[in-house]
Amino acid sequence: MQQEIQNNKLIIFDTTLRDGEQSPGASMTQEEKLRIARQLEKLG
After folding, report:
1. What pLDDT digit, counting tens, does each position of 4-33 carry?
2. The pTM is what?
3. What is the 3-state secondary structure (H, E, C) of the chain?
4. For 22, how many CA atoms within 13 A lie in the half-sphere containing its CB?
5. 8, 24, 22, 28: which is closest to 37 by C-alpha?
6. From CA 6, how far away is CA 1, in angstroms rounded?
């Protein structure tokens, strides 16, 4: 009955930028978002 997992791949959806933008009084320019996204990508 239980399906066997074929792929041990874990997918994480990082919502750091979206959640940060929704904080009251917080806003980021496009360049700031890109800079943060690049740093997050470097972290893996």
Report:
1. 666 777 777 878 778 878 888 888 899 998
2. 0.54
3. CCCCCCCCCCCCCCCHHHHHHCCCCCCCCHHHHHHHHHHHHHHC
4. 5
5. 28
6. 15
- Cα separation, 15 vs 11, in Å, equals 13
Number of Cα atoms under 13 Å in the Cβ half of residue 42: 6
The Cα–Cα gap between 20 and 33 comes to: 10
10: left (phi over 0), alpha (psi -120 to 50) or beta: beta
Burial of 20 (0-12, 13-18, 19+ CB in 10 A): middle
What is the Cα–Cα distance from 32 to 35, expressed in whole angstroms?
5
